[in-house]
Amino acid sequence: MKRLLITGLAVVSLVGCADEAPKIKINELNPTNEAYIMSDSLARGIVEASNYEEFNRARKSIEEYEEAMRTQIGGEAYLIFLEECNYFMEEI
Amino acid sequence: MKKISKNSKITITTGVLFVLGLLILTYLYNPAPHITTPEKDAKFLAEQAETIHSELDLRQLEKLAYEYEIAYRNNYGGAKAMYFKSLVEPILIEAGDRRDAIREEEDYLRDQQNLFFSKLEDMDVAWRMKLGSDEDIFDMLNANDLRVLELTDEIAQLQADRVLLAEKAWQGDGATIDEKSLENLGKVDEKIERLTRSIESINHDSEVIRLAYRLQRGMDFEYVRPMGEFPMEDETPAEELPVE
Fold first, then answer.
1. Residue B171, SS3?
2. Residue A62 near residue A89 (C-beta atoms within 8 A)
3. Which of B116, B127, B211 sits opposite A82 (nearest CB)?
């Protein structure tokens, strides 16, 4: 019974840890370059959406990436990402 | 010679240890900084200044510099304190500049973040908006613009009232202040601010309607604004007010 309980707890904690792992991993070696590439690609998805469902998917992607960029990298690269996205989105 | 009893010896030793302990604690927890030389202490503060990021950091550095100055004044007199102050002053000015620059960067970042999320939110609203016919859209935009014109006129009237109130508040020579007029002036300012925000909000609504048209119908909505004096998009009438 005790062994079963310990195994159960271990599995639960493993699942918990796995859930906390970030969905998006930013390339820490060259975040600025990634900020340029990803802002272009993600903002293009927003601008070129042809209906609400497409827009919604693109919005989810860009917001997830924004969060990853903000929490994992921040600083200059994050600012570049925001500026580039805003530039593209202002074009509409 | 009178022999000291064992109990008295213990009492004296405890007393001495207690006083020593108090002295050590006072030394350790003394809020005044332990000064060395003005150059060394100024160098230490310069190192601290390098780590400044926020308003709180700067306030703490200024407090520390002030405590050092007081410590110099108490221990060595005014001349050394003044010398220390002359070394530290440029460090504090540089730290202030550094903090200002950081604050500017933070403000810019926050603006970009707000723009990012507000643009996404506007587009979300625009995609979900039920547009109706071109006539309906024209009516909505026209109604918004007419309301903006009304509000702009109201603000112009309030600004004229404000000038009269300001003159009345600072009667003639500017030495006497009419409290009642001053109070009314504050109320007028608040109202102008409120109306200005309303104009911004209406203009934003119109912008989202046009965005909805572009997104859902793939083209710009052809629309001519009604005749009248519209405030510039990024111009707030309150800023045009003469400041007394």
1. strand
2. no
3. B116
Contact (CB<8Å) A55/B115: no
* Residue in chain B nearest A48 by alpha carbon: B215
Structure tokens at B170: 């600072």
Q: Using 70 as the pLDDT threshold, list the residues of chain B that sit under it.
A: 1-2, 27-32, 172-175, 228-244
Whether the Cβ atoms of residue A78 and residue A70 lie closer than 8 Å to each other: yes
Task: Say yes or no for a CB contact (<8 Å) between B120 and A86.
Answer: no
With a CB cutoff of 8 Å and minimum separation 6, the contacts of B173 are none
A19 vs chain B: nearest CA distance in angstroms? 26
Q: Cα–Cα distance between B91 and B61 in angstroms, integer?
A: 10
Residue of A nearest to B119 (CA): A89
Give the separation between CA A26 and CA A32, rounded to whole angstroms. 10
Let me know the angle formed at the C-alpha of B209 by B203 and B213, rounded to the nearest 5 degrees. Answer: 145
| pTM for this entry | 0.68
Query: How many beta-carbon pairs below 8 A join chains A and B?
Result: 41
**What's the token pair of residue B135?**
């006539």
Q: Are B88 and B107 in contact (CB under 8 A)?
A: no
Q: What is the pLDDT of residues B87-143, one digit of tens each?
A: 999 999 999 998 999 999 999 999 999 999 999 999 999 999 998 899 999 999 999
